[in-house]
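F.,

This is the one I mentioned.
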């Protein structure tokens, strides 16, 4: 039985701990004692209160484990990743850290570890799919649209956040990069909105966000790539209004001799408004399109994902689809199916057909199904 430690016991961290504890020895650590008590009280999972920013404490607690999964907020992701690598531990990371980390490849190799970054639902699965098909065909266009949304639309935002609200706001404010005719194009986040129809969700609104990440650099042979986020119509207009009015500003505002940062206040308010309660029903929806030439035939390959809250395990869909991509990868590393050393974005894992099929099979066993269709174009 392998030993895994999970850094972070939020909604996704809990889901990963529950999943892996069914056949591995699992320990969860977090700064929040209440999150840990839920796991230790209901499952065979060891827990410990830990501040991951305390490097010596982190080094001590991960010593006896075969693999580390990092599910900390994005702003803690980079330093946590470096500390885990220094301690010579294999790592699967879903922290969605804002910094580029491909330059940590040499460091990971020097310490003899395997690190798979951005290993969630998105980024994550689209990268794995892109990497797989890039080995089989000449891709001309790759794009995907993804969203996690509540089943019940509640005024005013019609949105619930399964992740840290500051990470969601980061998605709304970080400039969006996409690739057009082999050139990197940068546009404001939340730009180029369009309405799209989905069988299980009806009309949704798509807008530019910065989800391509490593794909821009690792699969630069693909001339056109784009990623968009999905929300219910009207949501993004509200966020644009908050931004335009200054509610997301980082510059302090002085009020009655006291300084306040609008972004911090807004984050606190949105945290309450967007809080996804443990049994709130929600769904994850994603469409991945791959267009290009395979064996002399021009074709379009589409993967559709629709997944809902699991009422039996009481795990949110976004926690399942994000977390189980990471646990599939962790399981694959522990079983020595993937054992290369260095820093790997998911597309570099997906290019291996054995790894690609391993992850899809693992997800299907948990009723997370990527439905594939294709047609000639």
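My design for it:
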């Amino acid at each position: 039985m392998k030993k895994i430690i999970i850094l972070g016991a939020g909604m996704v961290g809990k889901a990963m701990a529950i999943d892996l504890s069914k056949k591995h020895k699992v320990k969860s650590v977090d700064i929040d004692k209440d999150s840990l008590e839920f796991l230790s009280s209901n499952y065979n999972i060891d827990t410990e209160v830990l501040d991951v920013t305390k490097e010596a404490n982190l080094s001590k607690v991960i010593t006896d484990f075969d693999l580390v999964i990092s599910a900390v907020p994005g702003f803690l992701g980079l330093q946590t990743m470096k500390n885990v690598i220094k301690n010579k531990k294999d790592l699967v990371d879903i922290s969605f850290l804002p910094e580029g980390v491909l330059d940590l490849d040499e460091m990971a190799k020097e310490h003899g570890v395997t690190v798979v970054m951005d290993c969630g639902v998105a980024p994550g699965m689209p990268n794995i799919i892109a990497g797989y098909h890039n080995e089989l065909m000449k891709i001309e266009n790759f794009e995907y649209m993804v969203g996690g949304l509540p089943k019940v639309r509640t005024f005013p935002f019609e949105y619930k956040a399964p992740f840290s609200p500051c990470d969601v706001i980061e998605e709304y404010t970080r400039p969006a990069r996409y690739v057009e005719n082999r050139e990197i194009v940068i546009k404001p986040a939340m730009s180029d909105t369009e309405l799209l129809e989905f069988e299980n969700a009806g009309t949704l609104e798509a807008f530019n966000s910065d989800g391509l990440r490593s794909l821009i650099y690792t699969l630069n042979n693909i001339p056109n790539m784009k990623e968009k986020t999905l929300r219910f119509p009207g949501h993004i207009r509200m966020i644009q209004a908050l931004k335009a009015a200054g509610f997301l500003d980082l510059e302090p505002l002085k009020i009655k001799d006291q300084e306040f940062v609008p972004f911090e206040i807004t984050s606190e308010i949105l945290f309450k408004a967007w809080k996804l309660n443990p049994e709130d029903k929600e769904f994850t929806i994603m469409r991945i399109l791959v267009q290009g030439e395979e064996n002399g035939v021009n074709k379009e390959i589409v993967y559709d994902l629709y997944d809902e809250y699991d009422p039996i395990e009481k795990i949110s869909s976004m926690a399942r689809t994000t977390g189980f991509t990471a646990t599939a990868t962790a399981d694959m590393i522990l079983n020595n199916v993937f054992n290369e050393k260095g820093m790997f974005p998911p597309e570099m894992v997906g290019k291996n057909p054995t790894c690609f099929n391993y992850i899809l099979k693992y997800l299907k066993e948990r009723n997370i199904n990527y439905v594939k269709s294709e047609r000639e174009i």
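The mean pLDDT is 94.

Talk soon.
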